[in-house]
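G., the chain you wanted modeled:
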Amino acid sequence: MRGRGNLRRRRESPVAKLRALGELVYDQIERGEHPVLRIPDRSVSNIIYDERLRQYVLGNKVTLRTTRNVKHLRAFAQLIWLAYFSKLLSESHKTSTLRDVFYSAQAYRVDFEDQDESDERITELEALLGMAREEFNVYPEERSSIFGNLVIEYNVPGYEGRRLDLTSHPDGVMIGPALTTADFVETDAEMVIAIEKGGLFTRFIEEKVHERFKAILVNTAGQAPRATRYLLRRLRSELNLPVYILTDGDPWGMHIAMVIISGSANAAHLTQLNVPDASWIGVWATDILKYKLPYDKLTDADVKRLRELARDPRYSGDPWRSQIDSFLEHRRKSEQEAFAKYGLTYIVDKYLPDKLGR
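Predicted structure as C-alpha cells:
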C-alpha cells in the first residue's frame, strides 16, 4: 500500500455564517425595521444547467421572507429557530437526523405541521447559507456503505487520530457523518466503483473485486444519498481516482448515475455533490441484447420516463442518447442480478473486465 500524502481537509465552519445570520436579523430589529431575509429562489424557473460546472445551479432570482407580511411570520420564525438549533449542533459537535430535528422543535414549542415542512425549512437554510445541511450536522436517515483498500483517519471529537482500514468489515463500512469527513491516509486503489444495489456490492466483496481491480467499492443503496455523492467527489478530487457507476438497466438506473455525475435539481443550491467526469458503464440497454440477459418489458411509466430524459440536456450526448434510443427500440429492461443466468461470478469474470477494458 502506498501513501497518498495523508491528505488533510478543513471544513468551513458553519458557526460564523449562522452567527452572521442572527446578527443580520438582530441589526434590523435594532434599527426599528421589520427583519427581511433574501432566500435564493429554488423554483423550476430559476434552476439552470451550467455547462461549465456540468451540474444544475440556481439563477439570480431571490424570494423575500419579510416579517412585515403576516403570512411570512410562521416560516420566518421556523427558519430562525432552525438556524439557532443548527448552531447548537455545530458548537456541541453533535449530529441530528432530519427526523430528530422535527421532534426537537416540539421541545422548543416551534410548530411544524409535519416533517415535510421541517425539511423544507432546512433546505431554505441551506440555500440561505450556501452550505449543505450536513455541514451544520443535520443528516438524513438513509445510509450507504464503502469497502476497499483505503485507510482513513477520523477527525470528529473523541475519535481524532483514530484510523480505520475500510476492508475491516466484510459487509462494508457505513457511510456516516464521521466517515464522510475523515481524512484519506493511504490507499493503493486505482478506481472507484459505485454500485446501485447491495446484493451486487456484497458479490463484489466476496469475489475480491477490490483486489482484482484495485477498486474502492461504494454501495449507493439506490439513489445515492448526498453524503455518499460528496464522498465520491472527494475520492475523485483528492485521490484522483476515476469513478465508474453500475446501475440496473432501466431509465431509473440511468438517472441514479446521472445524479452522481451532474447533481440533482433539488440540490441546485449546493455544489460539491457531483462527480462531473464519472462514467456510467452499465447496465446499458445495448448490454441486454449483447449479453442476452433475462429481461422485463418496459412499462408505460418507464417509457414516459425515457422520453423525459430525452428532453433533458444532460442526456444529449453518448452513451446516454444512444442508450435511450435503444431502450425505446427494444422495450426491454434488466437488473444487475440478471447476469446470474450465467453463474454467480460471471459479472465479475466477464462483464466487469469488458466494461473496464481489463
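Residues 169 and 222 are 21 Å apart (CA to CA).

Shout if anything looks off.
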